[in-house]
Amino acid sequence: MAKEYTLRKENYKVEITSNLKQRIDYEKVLNESQLRAVFSTDGSYLLIAGAGSGKTRTLTYRTARLIELGYNPTSIVLLTFTRKAAKEMLDRASALLDERCSKILGGTFHSFSYLLLRQYGNIINLDKNFTILDQQDSIDILGMIRNEIVSKNSRFPQKDTLQKIYSYTLNTGTSIEDYLLKEYPHFYHLTNEIEKLFIAYQNYKIENNVLDYDDLLKYTVLLLNSNDKIADNFLKSLSFIMIDEYQDTNHLQALITKALAKFNNNVMAVGDDSQSIYSFRGANFKNIMEFPQLFPKVQIIKLQENYRSPQEILDFSNEIIRNLKYKYPKVLHSNKKGKEKPAIIPTKNEQEQSEFIVNRILDLLDEGVNLNEIAVLIRSAYFSYDLELELQKKKIPFQKIGGIKFVEAAHIKDVLAFLKTSVNIKDVLSFSRILTLLNGIGHKKANQIISVLNFDLLKNFDKNFPISKINKLTNEEELFQLLKLLKNLAFDEESLAEKIQKVIIFYTPYFQSKFDDYNKREKDFNSLLTIASRYDDLQSFLSDLALDPPNSSIIDFEDEQKEKNFLTISTIHSAKGLEWEVVFIMNVVEGYFPSYYSLKNEEQLEEERRLFYVAVTRAKERLYITYPMFINSNEMGSSFARPSTFLKEINPKFYEEWIIK
DNA sequence: CCGTACAATGTTTTT
DNA sequence: CATTGTACGG
User: Fold this and answer.
1) Nucleotide with C1' nearest the A611 CA
2) What is the pLDDT of residues A333-373, one digit of tens each?
3) Cα–Cα dist A225/A229, whole Å
4) Residues with CB under 7 A from strand B
5) Which end of chain A offers a freer environment for a tag, N or C, measured as fewer CB atoms within 10 Å?
6) C1'-nearest nucleotide to the CA of A410
7) Which bases along strand C come within 7 Å of a protein CB atom?
8) What Å value separates CA A547 and C1' B15?
């Protein structure tokens, strides 16, 4: 028996087998376009979804729907921008239906690729024990190679620049020549040398059995397109592919999407071209425009009704995208009536700005707003330093998301280097990092030691180890202790926490002489141990740290942590997809937001504008935009600041200006 | 060849 | 302002 399910405008059928009762009342909670997306089970779809239009909701219900129809959870792939987003979606789907929903294959493109390569990497001759390089690692390796090849005084791109060029060209499929011509014309004549350097980098990674972020994607494309029988069987086991935030995918990710759909051709991509904010990572909103070429019979569904914000905030948002040159035209609507218009608040200086925000937050708390429902959004992580001080003074607990992550801190990288070396002794970078900690060992001696050592030697390591082979070693005992520790880490059955404990004990004397502020840094080790306690396997601990690093840095007022009630300070990039009742956006000053960087380039300016749009549309109830009229910057001293162009473009009837007396 | 002291430099966003 | 390179003494 099949039930016929017809909607007024669009006619299509959904079959429900008789033994499967429909448990979720979809019609009650979804609008027409959302329903259409949720009930589509065949073919490819592109959902153009405005901010707050319920795209997450749609994907969640579709997930539940597919499971309800009886599809195997492992035949469904859900790729999202962060792992947190994936988890939340699957949790919600599980709540709607049952926990089968949480068994869906999901995560970010990178984490999904990682899992695939661990399982099937041998198909493309990949050693399964590879470790992952984070961005800084790739930069350092490129720097090493650069120093070998490039003579000291010649003008040659810095290591960070090299990494940018490498990553960008690979992710976008641009040739190095074209990219240099466009972005770094002064290095154009070095195209050949740079290409050679990249080949050396590539070889280094293969020899040392390490993959960088870009390799994860690149090899996954290779694997999925290998036509290998096992790979194809995996692809045949997939029935549905869903991609969230498609506007922020790049060329490589589009290739993965295409490859995943090789046999099923069921892709649903969801995105908003006006929210594309990751071009620096090779993402291009044109990807979403090209989607129909990639999947010829694609059907486009638009979600334009906004459920998040009142009309007052949407009017303001619409004003921002009105000025976008390139976009799918759209206007957001809402039925919600707001409490007040968005407010723009000029302040005398940055300090008054912080005071205003803190005062306003205290007012809101008095009104009964929950601190969890308030966020301060910033263009760049360092914008909030002054505010953070003010919050501390007033004892308002906050968490900061974005900016420098704690896995990037030198002392955490040191500890992790011990662990990484114990997993992959060919990880030269980590090994030399810990060797040079020892007294009397610098780069040269470290390299000597590394060239002598291998895994077998370490396994059988004892007093007879040929330390003597290394010339003029001043402190044999230290090296001996280090190798003993590494052997212990690599081969002994111990819990992860125990291993980390041992590393910390060994590391402490070096740590204390390396950092003057070691007592401040010390508490990070506890955080590391806390994170580690969730894992029993070292490999997955390390890969998770690389693929999904905890990005909320300081959670202040540790005693009050139990309350779980924090103000959130976040970069706009990290705030993507999230929402709060009250949103503050601070330092909306020309040169800060949009940043100086983007002023020379129209495309980048457009992206800043989209970024502003993303920031504004995070607000569910109220929006406060502040800017100081006077800034103290270190170099230039104090100077008058102009409000951002983005603010001047907005028709004053859509906001109120507050004057602080 | 190591370690340290000092100078220079350039500053967004993240997997 | 903090990281990264360079020069020099041991």
Assistant:
1) B13
2) 888 887 789 999 999 888 889 999 999 999 999 999 999 99
3) 11
4) A 81-82, 108-111, 134-135, 160, 213, 277-278, 280-281, 379-382, 402-403, 436, 438-446, 547-549, 551, 571, 573-574, 595, 597-598, 604, 634-635
5) C
6) C3
7) 1, 3, 5-6
8) 6
